Amino acid sequence: MAITAEDVSLEDIVPISLDFAVVEVSSPEELAVVGADTKVRVSYQERALELRLPFGSHSRFFLSEVNRAWSEVCKSATQAPGFKWVGKYYKATKGLGVVKQALAPSGATLTKLSQQRKTAKSGPSEKERGANAGAPTSKQTGQESQVKSSREDRDDLVRSSSHTTSNKAQILAMPQFGLRDNIIRCELLKTEDLYTYTEDFSFFLGTYNVNGQTPKESLRPWLSCTANPPDMYCVGFQELDLSKEAFFFNDTPKELEWTKAVAEALHPDAKYALVKLVRLVGIMLIFYIKKEHAEFISDVEAESVGTGIMGRMGNKGAVAVRFRFHNSDICVVNSHLAAHIEEYERRNQDYKDICSRLLFRQLDPTQPPLTIMKHDVIVWIGDLNYRITELDVTTVKELISQKDFETLHGHDQLKRQMDEEAVFVGFVEGPIDFQPTYKYDTGSDKWDTSEKCRVPAWCDRILWRGKNIAQQQYQSHMTLKTSDHKPVSSLLVIGIKKVNAEIYKKTFEDIVRNIDKLENECIPSVTLSNREFHFKDVKYMQHQSVTLSLSNDGQVPCQFEFIQKPNEHTYCKPWLTANPPKGFIAQDGSVDIELEVFVNRSTAPKLNCGKEKMEDILVLHLERGKDYFISVMGNYLPSCYGSSIHSLCQLREPIQDMPQETLRRVAENSQTDDETNTEKPLDIPKELWMMVDHLFRNALNQEDIFQQPGLRIEFAEIRDCLDTGIPDSLPGSNHSAAEALLLFLDALPEPVVPYSFYQQCLENCSSASQCEKIISMLPQCHKNVFNYLAAFLRELLKNSASNRLDVSILATIFASLLLKSPTKQDLAEKRRSQEFFQHFLTQGSS
Predict the structure, then answer these.
(1) Which of 166, 531, 532, 824 is deepest in the core (most CB within 10 A)?
(2) How far is CA 610 from CA 69, 223, 642, 660, 665, in A?
(3) Which stretches are transmembrane (predicted)?
């Protein structure tokens, strides 16, 4: 798993006062990298440091918050700030000179400078510029910026983004613009065809599953295969590193090795600037652009999403980069979907998960994030892992030898799923006239000669969606033999929207004149399709949604937003969301809002026992207009997921067969340790026994158990079986049952090792005898569950030759579920919790 902000802690503090300063500094080499991380110098009194912030919206938001705080200080410059709140940190800090990583966005790194005060005149060897963490301009790629050192100019030193001439309309998305400017933006978008024209640019797309290998040969036959140098490169890798260190800690030296190999193989007839690199475990995407086009790139964002076990692990998933080039919004996705020939439904699910969960933050943090589909052009590359079906390996190889790719393609799973509109709706793939790219013996062009003798398949694909796109080539590159896959490339020529500045100016002025006539004449008004919504039979981790339609029946455009009710921090209960939560409706226009309910591990406990009802009132506010009240209710079906171990041990019948009053009473007794119940409780929850017993009987030899995800539809069937007792045995695959067990443990309100024992476990993690002693002191039902699970996992390890598990993998997966921190857990604590649990995997425990 990647190291996140949860893994760092606060040690030292820099107060933001009149003695505080922040400027952005970069070396000349860094200025040439369009999407480089942002380096800022933070100084306070006699101390200073350099802080490296990861490129993107998180850093922009961090810097804008610093600027906002500094502006507040300047407003009250005559009052010396007391910083009394800092007192509580004195014991843990060495002084007020250093910003620790916890104060910066995830991924930030810092370098301490000398204790001498660093000023804007710190030396000619550095190029300093205003702290611009956003989209780069030509000044960033070739010109030196001067430092603004006066206090009056400091508001300019930390700013959200810079803009090119070609995306003036995007400026209107910034937070300082209100209803009037949103109307202008809407009208500009509606009339975009008047002031834009298209110009063709070439995009080179490449994908390569390198099977954990290091570069052994030049990549030039792949990356420089076009006659003319392309305008952009988007190069994707999968399985960059297959080591456990990469899998669990997202750390690999191979990133640098392959990045260097790519840089050396770009087309020799052009100069390129690196815009962005993003990686999730072994999935990496590198984005280059010709240097002469760099100034027209803006709004660059990179995101990733894992679709591995429990939807978190990054061994499968996607990375993506979105950007604006001139006036076109483009998104490039590199994904690695689920493996194995029979798992096409899992691949479909991975695709849908990536589309729904991969979100890009907008320049205006109050605006909802952008999804993949909200772009003019989408390019999707990667090891999609779809296979050839219904043909044996001999027939497939014979068709390949005859170059009858058309017949073979008819049996391709991706083609069939696209034809059925199950995935990649609206996407296009060019004709395939090259042989399958998987699987070869490494270092050769021979098909797989291993015992498994894989059926050849077109696993590695390139698809696109959008207008004005033509593919000039689509091919594999057989000369590269480093991996068991062959790399694939595509050259797309895309019509990019460019702005005619003169016509844009005239259009803008016309729109403003028309709005001036309308302003203040009318009050906005909308019609709601419904004001009461009821969700029937809501289940744990099962999405339900309804559509609320808003129609603008007023005389002017309007802006809407769901607002907080008095004494509440959010506009809705945590199990409810409205998408979008705010927006703009043109005159006579309409918008559909999805009201979605989703109960997860944080909201299930109180709903399960009836302490909370599924009821809420949404307040829809119109700017300069009135408020509308919308009632949302639902019937939640209690689940073992999100119920406590103690409560489940008191229930001999399925939870949905129990009256609500009984569930409430059992939950209350659980919190007060009431022992008045005369009926002997179960030793362990029956639901836990059903899952473990099923896995013990069916999955001891299952390859990649607890590492490969199951199907969501099968999890739903397993959950219903546990909650209703129907059917008698668990449905679904072994992988789905294994993931259902992990989700059950993850959803426990109080973990198997209660929070009160957490610190004691970490302090004694190196002593096996002390660890066993701590477990012996757990409440009886918790102790039973812990020992039962440990015994089962030891049985799994006896079959490691077939299931490919080891102590390290199981300790990493289960320690984080059984031994949870009551607060955020740092990396050192994670390692100690794993050490604690390893004792119970390597020896017996009473």
Answers:
(1) 166
(2) 43, 60, 12, 7, 10
(3) none
